[in-house]
Design goal:
This protein is α/β, with parallel strands linked by helices. Helix content is 37%, strand content 23%. It is built from seven helices and seven strands, in the order H-H-H-E-E-H-E-E-H-E-H-H-E-E. Strands 3-2-1-4-5-7-6 form a seven-stranded mixed beta sheet, sandwiched between helices. The longest helix has 16 residues. The radius of gyration is 16 Å and the shape is globular. It starts with a helix and ends with a strand. The N terminus is likely disordered.
Length: 213
């Protein structure tokens, strides 16, 4: 979704910001162990694609710097508050993940959690992530993905895709993100597929891992 789409959306933008902040505690319950493991060795400066209201800041060391690539301006107030709450130095860039204004080979660690489902062009977003990473730098990710063909989950994902896509500002219920990450040309990809059971049935199939440039 383009930056202008977020800026002009006076209904879904604020609604999603409120909803993500409200669900913050529950999402922490669902992801706490996975995120602590993925983020535990992060450097002093971290780039995050689509940080939303700042749910991942609790897993960063106090005093760290977060460069937040967040096009939804309605998220920014909560992002700033989260940074204050967790002692994080915050720089917000109101950009889409497909157009990051950072130099090539300029960062060591990029985070993306439940974000590749929403960008218009996930391949371009991943290419941008790889471009800004230094050699040996890591992209750590958690994403919901397309269910196995012929399963009930795959049927539900197809059935609910259109309303889900509209309500969650462009979120796709059934992208094959696993194959996409593997196709970008990272030197190493460590990826685990699993089921995260929750009331949000379309996003039960998930992947987690790290891709190294």
């Amino acid at each position: 979704m383009s930056k202008n789409s977020f800026e002009l959306n006076e209904f879904r933008g604020p609604l999603n910001s409120w909803m993500f902040k409200t669900l913050d505690g529950y999402m922490d319950y669902l992801f706490v162990r996975t995120k602590r493991d993925l983020f535990k060795n992060h450097p002093d400066t971290v780039v995050e694609i689509g940080p939303g209201t700042g749910a991942n800041m609790r897993y960063l060391r106090k005093g760290s710097t977060l460069i937040a690539i967040e096009p939804n301006i309605h998220m920014h107030k909560n992002l700033r508050q989260s940074a204050l709450d967790h002692g994080i130095n915050l720089e917000i860039k109101s950009l889409i993940g497909e157009a990051i204004d950072m130099a090539s080979d300029s960062c060591e660690f990029v985070i993306g959690t439940l974000v590749l489902c929403t960008v218009d062009d996930p391949r371009l977003c991943l290419e941008q992530i790889k471009r800004i990473l230094k050699q040996g730098g890591e992209f750590v990710f958690i994403e919901h993905v397309k269910a196995r063909s012929g399963t009930l989950l795959a049927f539900i994902q197809r059935l609910i895709h259109r309303p889900w896509h509209w309500f969650f500002e462009g979120c796709h219920t059934n992208r094959d993100t696993s194959a996409l990450i593997r196709s970008i040309g990272f030197s190493e990809v460590h990826l685990d597929a699993y089921a995260l059971y929750s009331p949000f049935v379309p996003i039960i199939p998930q992947i987690k891992g790290r891709a190294i440039k």
